[in-house]
Known about the structure:
The structure holds two protein chains of two kinds. Chain A is α+β, with helices and mostly antiparallel strands.
Amino acid sequence: MKLTLAKASLIRHRSRTILAVLGVAIAAAMLLDMVMLASGMRESFRQLLMSRGFEIRLAPKGTLPFDTDATIPNVRAVTEVLRGNPDIEMISPVMGASIHIPVGERNVSSAALGIDPSVQGDYELLSGGDVTRADAIVANDYLLEQLGAEIGDTLDVGTGYDPQTRSYTGQRRLVVTGRVRFLYGATQQPGSAMRRETLEGMVGPERRDRASLFMVSLREGSDAEQVRGWIAAQLPNVTAISIATAIAQVDQRLSYFRQLAFILGAVSLFVGFLLVTTLVTVSVNERAGEIAVMRAIGVSRAHVVQQIVIEGVAISMAGAVAGLALGLVTARYLNEILSAFPGLPMAIDFFLFQPRAAWSALGLLVVSGIGAGIYPAWRAASLPIAESLRREAIA
Amino acid sequence: MTGTSIVSLREVKRDYVLGAERVHALQGVTLDVAAGDYVAIAGPSGCGKSTLLNLIGVIDQPTAGTVSVGGRRVDGMSDREATMFRLHSIGFVFQRFYLMPILSALENVALPMAEAKVPARQRIERAAELLDYVGLSSRMNHRPSELSGGEQQRVAIARAIANKPSLVLADEPTGELDAHTGAEIIALFRRLNTDGTTIIVVTHDEELADAAHRQIHMRDGRIVGDAFEV
């Protein structure tokens, strides 16, 4: 009967209830988006780092991978040291450089990675073949579009370019063998990769046997933090970053986002709470006589309270479900806008849907719905029966 | 007075504070109502009739004096005790019917039985019987807005007797009805009383008051006349 009465009470003022549900839905969507934003980028970054199975990255001392132009010298020696640890399964040195390609009268520049294709973890091949030959280069769609090139085309690639004289240095003729997608590449960032020895040959002797980054994968069951500590001890001129430490650094950099998300999420929740409280309080005030009659004919305070709380929870839940759908749509739209931010890896999502986050948002809304119903329910239960009936009669 | 008292009030006072003023709604009322009686309480507006009814119905508490209903002291009862007492022992009929607009006639009558935890099937059967008793068997699935004033008041009477109370209290039950419909309600109260229910009705309606076995007249919070049917 309580459910019937609560449902009927909400249906009685249908348009008001619908507007309240819509209001809660907007607050719920905002809350969900903020919950997704608070943890989404971190989780997305974690998934990205984990995607190719390299648990540790080595960068020049005091830097983050590709944060600066600094490099790690003696690739062979470093590789030998790393091979001395039985927990290390695979070592992938990566060299980073800029390349310049003439296209008619203009120059197209791009980031280039020098890698070993058998152990690389920087890109995935979309079509064509990998850089198995010394004169092979793979490129992302954006670079191919800039060059107007396709698989099979030959390019004159240089590692230096003087715009005054329009002259190129370190030039070599390379054949495009494949289309790739760089995992850490930003939107609209031209990218390419070739064999490390090819790039080394082009950049000149000063950067020979150097790497911008080492990616290290471990054998199953190994303790990444233990290996990281071992590397730090063995190679004092490098910074070893495990996924956990990388995430901790990202966490530190994203603390602004999390605080913003927390504040906006809390505001959304509070707005939803106030909306439901106001609506149910208005409804209770309107029904003061009706509630007094229910009490007079023997309906207990507890049942009146339950009925009012059910109304608050029903509005909150309906709003939460609608808000879930609305939140996912808005998150997708906002994600597209934010992901286009220059310099950010395309694979990073700001708003990552996580069932746990959605359940948390839903749970918070239900709890706030219960909270929102408590004040009007207390008012309803505290109505003096005789006085309310007298007022109703006078009204 | 005949038979055992179902209602007994001793020196009952009820004061209200309205702003800075203290209003003495009842000023030492002593009254006994016998079980099975049909009592009308009449008097001018503001004389304390409804206050007296509210105290007997345990929806208000006296400032002083004692109130007993069905042999139990009801003044000073806790809210929980008073609610249970009203649920099982007292039926209310109001001037404005006060049916739940969102429920059908049948559901309105079943409401107090649901609260008394009568099994669903049993309460629907009894609600249907009661609607038949008040002559509304063909209107049981209608909502209050689809019923006339007289029909709504009959539903309210059926609701009042749903849990078989020994006492029915009615506050101006014909106040919103025309003379013809009012007469039907008066007949229904008579029938109810004949079937054994004690009825106390507060009214301005002379016909309704005349139908009672006993007429109590009040003025300024006091009983000024008490006449039994000869």
